[in-house]
């Protein structure tokens, strides 16, 4: 499904992603023209995240398609509402069609890896330790 929304020309990047996903990583790669307009940015990139979370993986399996989402931003800190399902519903329930209660999430951010340049760059070291 990566090829539907991304351009990954380097087989080493594909292998790196395959080795580390699912897991606590976000890989920034080149987007193609299939990315919905609301997610397009000036850099023409997209973050690929496949969490090691059974609820998320099962939703994707059932849909047969990837989930395209934005991230919840907490500013500089980690707010409880991003990991407590009841607080998520309280804060965002009127803005979305459904909130799935998969239990409390983790507060540690993912490791963000930029794969768009000549070299792979860790933009943010998070929970994941990258295996090359």
Please give a structural write-up:
The chain has about 130 residues and is α+β, with helices and mostly antiparallel strands. Helices cover about 25% and strands about 15% of the residues. Strands 1, 2, 3, 4 and 5 form a five-stranded mixed β-sheet that branches. It is globular.
Features:
5-stranded mixed β-sheet; 4 helices; single chain; 132 residues; 17% strand; alpha+beta; globular
What is the element layout, followed by pairings?
Layout: H1 2-5, E1 6-7, H2 11-20, E2 25-31, E3 45-49, H3 54-63, H4 85-92, E4 111-114, E5 121-124
Summary, kept brief:
The chain is α+β, with helices and mostly antiparallel strands. The chain contains four helices and five strands.
**Largest sheet data:** 5 strands, mixed
Helix content: 10-25%
Q: What's the β-strand tally?
A: 5
Q: What would the average pLDDT be, to the nearest integer?
A: 89
For the termini, the CA-CA separation is 22 Å
Shape: globular
How many helices? The count is 4
User: What structural category do the secondary elements indicate?
Assistant: alpha+beta
Measured by DSSP, the beta-strand proportion falls in 15-25%
Helix-strand topology string? HEHEEHHEE
Global Rg? 15 Å
Which residue ranges are poorly predicted, with pLDDT under 50 across at least 5 consecutive positions? none
């Amino acid at each position: 499904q990566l090829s539907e929304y991304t351009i990954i020309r380097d087989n080493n990047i594909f292998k790196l992603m395959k080795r580390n996903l699912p897991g606590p990583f976000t890989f920034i790669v080149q987007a193609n023209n299939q990315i919905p307009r609301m997610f397009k940015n000036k850099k023409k990139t997209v973050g690929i995240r496949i969490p090691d979370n059974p609820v998320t993986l099962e939703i994707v399996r059932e849909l047969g398609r990837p989930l395209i989402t934005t991230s919840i931003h907490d500013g500089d800190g980690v707010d409880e509402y991003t990991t407590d399902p009841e607080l998520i519903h309280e804060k965002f329930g009127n803005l979305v069609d459904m909130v799935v209660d998969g239990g409390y999430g983790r507060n540690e951010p993912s490791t963000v890896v930029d794969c768009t340049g000549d070299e792979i760059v860790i933009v943010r070291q998070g929970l994941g330790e990258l295996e090359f």
